[in-house]
Amino acid sequence: MQAAKKAMVFFDRHEINQIMAVYGMMVGKGEWRDYAMDGSTDRAIFSIFRHASELPLYRIEKIPALARKQGAWRVLAPGGQILKRGHNLRSVLKVFDKFRLRVVG
Question: What are phi and psi of 73, to 5 degrees?
Answer without folding.
Answer: -110, 140
